[in-house]
Design a protein that fits this description.
Blueprint: E1 3-5, E2 8-10, H1 16-19, H2 28-38, H3 51-62, H4 67-83, H5 87-94, H6 108-111
Antiparallel strand pairs: 1-2
Helix pairs in contact: 2-3, 4-5
Length: 129
């Protein structure tokens, strides 16, 4: 039986601590904390959960800001940085690294594929004797 938590269907054949991480905003530490709070073993498979346990799990996850609300919050934070024209906001808008990394070399993930600039060929000087 598929368990839906915060709009995400948890993978049925994975351990609970791993399956919870498929929800945006829940990492390994928070997944283990949720398992502890509900009173479930983190190594139990999702398919083995009963209906009442899945309801408790849903309630525990709802205490955190996850999925759409978290994505919206992050997008609004980035938009706010751009609106006030701070350095970080400008870097986000330009698609460059935000946290002080070098860009002369590296930064290919943010900058995209390297574009070859047009190099002007110098006309070769003719030797006169």
């Amino acid at each position: 039986m598929a368990i839906r938590v915060s709009g995400v269907i948890l993978p049925p054949n994975k351990h609970l601590r791993i399956a919870l991480r498929s929800i945006y905003g829940i990492g390994s530490h928070r997944a283990i904390a949720i398992c502890k709070k509900v009173g479930l073993e983190p190594s139990v498979k999702v398919v083995e959960l009963k209906d009442d346990q899945s309801a408790q799990l849903q309630d525990a996850v709802n205490e955190y800001v996850v999925e759409g609300d978290l994505r919206r919050r992050v997008a609004m934070d980035i938009k706010r940085l751009g609106d006030i024209k701070c350095y970080r906001g400008l870097r986000h808008k330009r698609g460059l690294p935000v946290r002080g990394q070098r860009t002369k070399t590296n930064a290919r993930t943010r900058k995209g594929r390297k574009r070859q600039s047009q190099i002007m060929m110098k006309p070769q000087a003719t030797e006169s004797k």
